[in-house]
Amino acid sequence: MSTKTFNLSLPQTLLEKLDKRAKIDYSSRSEYIRKAIVSQMRTEEALENLFDRSNKKGAKLGITSEQQVYDIIAGK
Fold first, then answer.
1. How far apart are CA 45 and CA 42, in angstroms?
2. Using the 8-state DSSP alphabet, how is residue 65 labeled?
3. What angle is formed at CA 26 by the lines to CA 31 and CA 24, rounded to 5 degrees?
4. CA pair distance 54, 73, nearest whole angstrom
5. Cα dist from 51 to 15, 26, 43, 47, whole Å
6. pLDDT confidence of 23, banded at 50, 70, 90?
7. Is residue 76 over pLDDT 90?
8. Which residues contact 19 (CB under 8 A, 6 or more apart)?
9. Which of 10, 22, 33, 45 has its CA 20 to 30 A from that of 72?
10. pTM for the full predicted model
11. Residue ranges per domain, the chain?
12. How far is residue 9's CA from residue 30's CA, in Å, rounded to a whole number?
């Protein structure tokens, strides 16, 4: 896998937290950030898939608004 290097500016307090977490994880800053980015992207993809499936199911059930969803949750 080819890699690219880039600069990243962080506030000092965030950098300190990053270093602390990376040390706990027995990894470098770069490895910790790579893992965090991959994790975030997987989470976003999972949420997008969930919303897509929910919208399709809602359409099949005749749900046309968010208010209808809130009403169903509230038991109205």
1. 5
2. S
3. 110
4. 14
5. 34, 35, 12, 6
6. very high
7. no
8. 29
9. 45
10. 0.73
11. 12-74
12. 13
